[in-house]
Specification:
The complex is a heterodimer of chains A (about 300) and B (about 290). In chain A, about 75% of the residues lie in helices and about 0% in strands. Chain A has about 300 residues and is mainly alpha-helical. A two-stranded antiparallel ribbon of chain A has the order 1-2. In chain A, strand 1 and strand 2 form a beta hairpin. The N terminus of chain A is likely disordered. Chain B has about 290 residues and is mainly α. Chain B is globular and about 75 Å long. Chain B has two domains: about 60 residues, no CATH class; about 180 residues, MetI-like (MetI-like fold, Orthogonal Bundle), CATH 1.10.3720. The longest helix of chain B has about 35 residues. Chain B has 15 helices and no strands. The chains are: A mainly alpha (about 300), B mainly alpha (about 290).
Chain lengths: ~300, ~290
């Protein structure tokens, strides 16, 4: 807590006369600080803490009566639950591997471009699809995946798809979803990794080059190890985000005549519980499990990840 | 240069070109698609330009769909996102300032809570927020989008980082010695220096909310939907994707493409103009402090 140390150090060095004034200033600061964060704290409670507490309450009750883990047991016995876990799991594996390899590779390559405008321009082109998060990116990919209208129809046909329904067959879906997620999200991460690469002192790289290290060797032995924190950050964030899969399979399900199920992902299933079966308790149980995963990863990373040293 | 290195470099350039194409080709296609009829989409070269007449015809189909429903959706999006943007800035900027430059009880706890909630994907809280809002009977009320949209811990964190690195406490102390009270210190010293971070927080909040699908999908059904949810609604009126749909008004593929383009236009425009801010913001998001 460097800031705290500084201010106490400062107050001890200031003379005795100033001490009374200091105290009143500190009190005024305290009041002001509290006032300034009060609205935000209210929102944090209302839309961060309270929903989580309410979900806990719902997940362990039924019609207001405490039922222990019954809601969870019911969800586990649901024939749709484990397939949904499997779908999300396979998607996560495919997506995270793809994300780590390609983001690291592309950021190294973009970083090695010597011409400034070209490097900036390339990063920007990678980043633009980020403007289409949510339903619009899936909408666009519906066209891309439909061989009859797709700009890359020849590629789809090479993989044996003659219609959209072919392209989103269940065994291909994790790849399709991973490609969509990669298309929208990778650019942002490439920008982040590029920033991390820029923070590596130039003379370290230069010394290695003088010693005769080739670009691949430099990347492998110097750059990638120094990017590790950021790669971990990306993996953890993407893992937490990926478990939440909802909009992509939902829109695909609507467009693929049911080939992609309405209960493909866990969040879709939680949605069905709340909206089709009016079972808020079951819905809360699923949401709570997903929230626990996200929260666990987040807490772990905040305190162990080393990116937020001020806390 | 040795042949081996030359080959390596050529390979690197090839990979970059392939990925630039991967990221850009779908967008280029999307911009061109509304200028063509469905028939042209199926038969002609994907990157051919159709005609302005067809574009106009597709436009008419889209904006007359259910008496201009698309405008209602876009209006809804604009209302929710701008209202949320205003509230976000009003609550986040002072909060980030206070956490960075003042001492008060519970500061560290609040900072830790902010970081933790910031890293939890917002979708994880959608159903819990829905359950909460339905318990207080707010579902279908614009507040059901505006209030959750205005809770933006990432913005508070960005502001916190900005103020703790860009402004020194000594500067503020100097103003205090000169007789400024705490509120004046904030409005006269800190705020004029805060423009970059206000822009950054505003950008991330607005684009994130504009593209948010899951939350408004569950909390604001029907005519109150924002455009992202509307777009999926539009999809169910496209016969190519739903052959069993017997709805009287149908939407062609190219009109759907135009709708998609229209729905992302505000964010795309902000992206193009805010490019420089963005890059600095992305890296500041998790900077070592």
């Amino acid at each position: 807590m460097t800031t705290l140390d500084q201010s106490t150090a400062r107050s001890t060095t200031s003379g005795r006369k100033a001490k009374g004034q200091r105290h009143s200033i500190e009190r005024a600061q305290g009041r002001m600080g509290t006032a300034f964060v009060s609205l935000y704290t209210l929102f944090l409670l209302a839309f961060g803490v309270l929903p989580a507490l309410y979900a806990i309450y719902l997940a362990f009750t039924k019609k207001g009566a405490f039922v222990g883990i019954d809601n969870f047991l019911k969800v586990f016995k649901d024939y749709r639950f484990w397939p949904a876990v499997e779908h999300v799991g396979i998607f996560l594996v495919v997506w995270l591997i793809m994300l780590v390899i390609l983001v690291v590779l592309l950021s190294l390559l973009v970083h090695s471009i010597g011409i400034r405008w070209l490097s900036t321009g390339t990063r920007f082109l990678f980043y633009i699809p980020g403007a289409l998060a949510g339903a619009s990116s899936v909408m666009l990919w519906l066209f891309v995946l439909d061989p009859t209208v797709s700009p890359v129809g020849f590629l789809l046909r090479a993989f044996g798809s003659t219609s959209l329904v072919d392209a989103v067959q269940v065994d291909r879906l994790p790849f399709v979803l991973a490609v969509i997620a990669f298309w929208t999200g990778a650019g942002g991460w490439i920008v982040v990794m590029y920033g991390a690469l820029n923070n590596i002192p130039k003379d370290v790289i230069e010394a290695a080059r003088v010693d005769g290290a080739r670009p691949i060797r430099i990347a492998w032995s110097i750059q990638i190890p120094l990017m590790r924190k950021w790669i971990a950050y990306m993996v953890i964030m993407s893992f937490a985000g990926g478990t939440q899969l909802f909009v992509e399979p939902r829109v695909l399900s609507q467009a693929s005549r049911g080939v992609v199920g309405q209960d493909y992902s866990l969040n879709q299933l939680a949605f069905l519980y709340a909206f089709k079966q009016s079972d808020f308790n079951g819905s809360a149980a699923i949401s709570l499990m997903l929230l626990a995963v996200a929260l666990g990863l987040s807490v772990y990373f905040v305190f162990k990840g080393g990116l937020f040293e001020r806390v | 240069m040795t042949p081996g290195r030359w080959l390596g470099r050529a390979f690197a350039i090839l990979i970059l070109i392939v990925f630039v194409l991967f990221f850009i080709v779908p967008l280029v296609w999307l911009v061109l698609a509304p200028t063509k009829t469905d028939r042209q989409l199926l038969l002609e070269m994907p990157f051919a330009f159709g005609s302005f007449e067809t574009l106009a015809a597709n436009w008419t189909t889209l904006v007359t769909f259910q008496k201009g429903l698309i405008w209602t959706w876009i209006g809804n999006s604009a209302f929710y996102c701008l209202a949320a943007l205003a509230i976000t800035l009003i609550i986040s900027i002072p909060a980030g300032y206070a956490m960075a430059l003042t001492e008060f009880r519970g500061r560290r706890a609040l900072l830790a809570a902010t970081l933790i909630v910031m890293l939890v994907p917002s979708t994880a809280l959608v159903l819990p927020i829905f359950l909460e809002l339905s318990a207080v009977k707010l579902i279908g009320n614009p507040l059901a989008a505006i209030l959750p949209f205005s809770f933006f811990p990432f913005g508070v964190y960005l502001t916190y980082i900005y103020f703790s690195t860009a402004i020194s406490r000594d500067l503020l102390d100097a103003a205090r010695v000169d007789g400024a009270n705490e509120f004046q210190v904030f409005t006269k010293i800190a705020m004029p220096l805060a423009t970059p971070v206000i822009a950054l927080v505003g950008f991330f909040n607005f684009t994130g909310n504009w593209n948010n699908y899951f939350l408004p999908y569950v909390t604001l059904p029907g005519r109150k939907s924002p455009v992202q949810v509307g777009l999926a609604e539009l999809l169910s009126n496209v016969p190519a994707f739903n052959p069993t749909n017997a709805a009287s008004t149908t939407i062609s593929l190219s009109s759907l493409a135009l709708g998609t383009l229209l729905a992302i236009a505000p964010v795309l425009i902000v992206f193009l103009f805010a490019q420089r801010y963005l890059v600095s913001g992305m890296t500041a998001g998790g900077i070592k402090g």
